[in-house]
Each structure stands twice: as C-alpha cells, then as structure tokens.
Amino acid sequence: MQRVSETREIRDYAFETKFLIDPALGQRIREWMRAKLSPDPYGSGSHADEYRITSLYFETRNYDVFRRQGSYGRSKYRVRRYGSADVAYLERKMRTSTLLSKRRTPIALEDLESLNADAFTTPWAGSWFQQRVAVRGLQPSCQVTYQRVARTGVDAHGPFRVTLDDQLTVVPAEELQFVSGAGTPILQRGFILELKYRVAPAVALKELVEEFALSPKRVSKYRLGMLALVDRLGGGLSDLREMHTIELRYA
Predict the structure, then answer these.
(1) Inter-residue contact 170 to 184 (CB < 8 Å)
(2) In which element (H, E) is residue 33 found?
(3) Of 7, 140, 201, 226, which is most buried by a Cβ count within 10 Å?
(4) What's the number of CA atoms in the CB half-sphere (13 Å) around residue 104?
(5) Residue-level pLDDT at 145
C-alpha cells in the first residue's frame, strides 16, 4: 500500500470573497482574468489555467454541516481530486468570522478505503482526518464536480488568486469513492467567482469588482449540491425545499 506522508496547514489566502455570476457575465469575467492575471501554475488547456475538480463532502445523519449547527457550521471535511489523478487530498476547511484556513494531506487514491478502518489503530498520514471524521460522526454525503479557471497575481501583501467555476454537477455519495458519469446540474450553467487574498484585496481585485459591479454573496458549492438533491435525499432536507430557489438566485 502506498502512503503519502506530507501534511500541512495552508494559510496562503486568509480571506475569501465569493460571488454568484450569471453565464453572460461569467464569460466577460473570464476574458478579463486572462487579460489581467497570470495562469495558475497547475493549470492546463490552451490558456494553461483550467482543471477539473471533484470533491467528496462529508455530513452527519442530521445534516448538521448543512444546517450550520454549532461547530459544524465553521468547518467542512472533504476529499478532493484533480482531474483523473491517482492522488486524493484529505481536507478540512475551517472558517471563523475573520479568517479562513485549510489543512490538507495528499494520499494515494487507492488508500481512500483506509478511512473505513478503525480510526484509532495504526497511525498514518490520514489519521488526523480519519479521527476527526469519526469523532464528529461524518459520512460521505455528496460528490460535487466542476470546471475551474484559475489566475493569480502578487501584490505587497503576497499572492492572490481568482477562480471561476462552472459546469457544476452533483451526485449522492454513500461510499468513500469517486464516481464517474453525469450528475445533477447546479446553477444552470452559472458561475461561482472566488477572490482569495492574504490581508486586503489587491488593486486588481478591486478593479474586477468595480468594473463588473459585483456584489458578494455567501455561497457554498456543498450546500448548492445538497439542495439540488433535495428530492432524492427525502425527509432529511425536505423542510428546506424552499431554499432551493433562494440560494440559486444570482447576485
């Protein structure tokens, strides 16, 4: 069995601002990003800034993460995969009122099944994730897949990043594995724009917001994915059906 031992806390972008963007505006913003900013170092495609992301999200039986109950509202646990890579990333994304941090550990894709073992026996690189998921009663809930365009820049405070995500789809998840095939569309081909920076928005980010008259909106791909699955999930989220329309409304 292959073990990847690196684990780290990521604080490159302590702040994150999100926007819901309609399709026509999304195309214009993508052109602006490519004209003004540098391509992501891990990107591909004709502009060297594209990649596909698949995230497997975890939830409790009572949907405490979705409902933002107590500490469940401040953190999300997920397993992320880029394209068809044979490496997956165990991630905890934690948000306070002022800061955003992420812990992530890469593991071989074949080692995903190790998360099903006893969390408190043999230590390994993913033990921290495995133990927290077990203690918090988290299980796989849904898989969200989307296409990302990512561009970067640097200012006096350090690096900043702009990402534009579209083609979002979701499928229910009950097992610790990534599944292929078509899912339920989210956002009807809309975009999610994210600005990520360390201390304060760079001049370029302010220009982007001002030029396109953007208004921030609290948005979560996980929540949108779960809302898109309301009819398939049944009773657990049936009382939140009206939110399906509210949260999908563009800013």
Answers:
(1) yes
(2) helix 23-36
(3) 226
(4) 16
(5) 97
Q: What is the mean pLDDT of residues 46-61?
A: 96
Q: Cα separation of 232 and 6, whole Å?
A: 38
Give residue-wise pLDDT tens across range 226-242.
988 876 766 556 666 55
Contacts (Cβ under 8 Å, ≥6 apart) of 104: 7, 8, 10, 80, 89, 90, 91, 92
76-90: pLDDT as tens digits: 999 999 999 999 999
Taking residues 48-70, what's their average pLDDT?
A: 94
Token code pair at residue 163: 């990402």
> Per-residue pLDDT averaged across 147-154, rounded?
96
Cβ atoms of 104 and 82 closer than 8 Å: no
Residue 234: the pLDDT is: 62
Provide the residue ranges of all domains of the chain, joining segments of one domain with +: 8-247
CA distances to 11, 34, 158, 233 from 139, in Å: 26, 38, 37, 14
